[in-house]
Hints:
Blueprint lengths: L1 H52 L2 H11 L4 H33 L3 H8 L1 H9 L2 H7 L3 H21 L6 H25 L10 H10 L1 H11 L4 H10 L1 H18 L2 H17 L4 H34 L5 H10 L2 H17 L4 H25 L4 H27 L1
Amino acid sequence: MKKNIFLLYFVQASNYLFPLLTLPYLMRVLGAEHFGVMSMVQAWIQYTIIFVDYGFNFSATLLIAKNKENQNLLNKIYTVTTISKFLLFLIFLLIAVVYSLIFGLDIYVKLFFCGMFAVLGTVFFPIWLFQGLEKMQGIVISTTIAKCFSLIAVFLLVRDSNDIGLAIFSQSLGMFVSGIIAMVYIGKNKMVAFTKCGMSDVLASLKGGFDLFISNITISFYTTLNVIIIGYFAGPVYAGYFSAADKLRVAAQGLLTPVQQALFPRVSSLVSKGSDFIDILSLYGKKFILFGLFVSASIAVIGYPVSLFYFSEEYRVASSILLVMSPLPFIVSVGIVFGQWWLIINDHTAMVRNTYIRISILHILMATAFIHYAPVYGVTISVLITETIISCLFIRYCYRLAKQT
Length: 405
């Protein structure tokens, strides 16, 4: 497991290090307004990725982890999941084409199509397969090579503020290349192979991941949607400020992801063998939450002053937004332990889904209200309140369910 965590940290480092190398360059070359426009378009692209990923990063990972000794079943899970994701991609692409035919190709639509390579890449990059089999080498090789392509493309192609489309294309190139490399790696190592499946299998797969899909969509209402809300109500410049700060916060918070990804199949296996909630909390939960607290403190103590030098003078407001965001990794770590590691693994996905739906609607109402009174910090404050409420509800649900058993 330690090896898997190390490899996932390597992947996470490439996922955030390469974008962080290009971030100050793009901020300066594009300027605050065009950088904000790019951030809004990337938010819409991220929504498409969420749609295509559906709930498979959890549902398919669980299926792979539980059936890793059955090669025929692994082949079927791989085939069904990949086909399902490709069909979802085609559906969303069709929607985008119809929209452009009806309303025309404005700057946002044109830029959106520049980023569709990233969406196609997610179809072919089965992170859920590597995680379920606990074979992280495939992720490391695919993402590292792909990120290098993306990094080089940004510095070679993006020269001035008119190159927004090339900036989005260059960044989407990484995900596309990683998907192709992953497919080659899987075939070369004979990990799984495509096999026959029917539409009923695809529909069953979509049904199995539906609750998690709804959860992912509603989570995006207080994560991805924030940039769009700010851009719509306050303009792309403010969206650029928020996006710059959020990218640094997400990069720091990303330190939690490799641990979470490595432990998720392990916790799932322990629960299937009879471990209760207190066991999971004692073995891994408390340490993970303490790690989240450490990350939050580091953002406040180290991240804020560093960002003052990292951002240009034009983006100085972004550093203040980052400081307000600093408690989020700790709050999120609590939600992961009580939500993903217990409620989802124990098939309480409907409870998780309903929580996300209710609270995400509350967030949208708060964010749109707060932004009128505090354009710089309103949405950030709303995110803090939203994440806190969700984590508190998950804690309450877990202890209530523990008492019933």
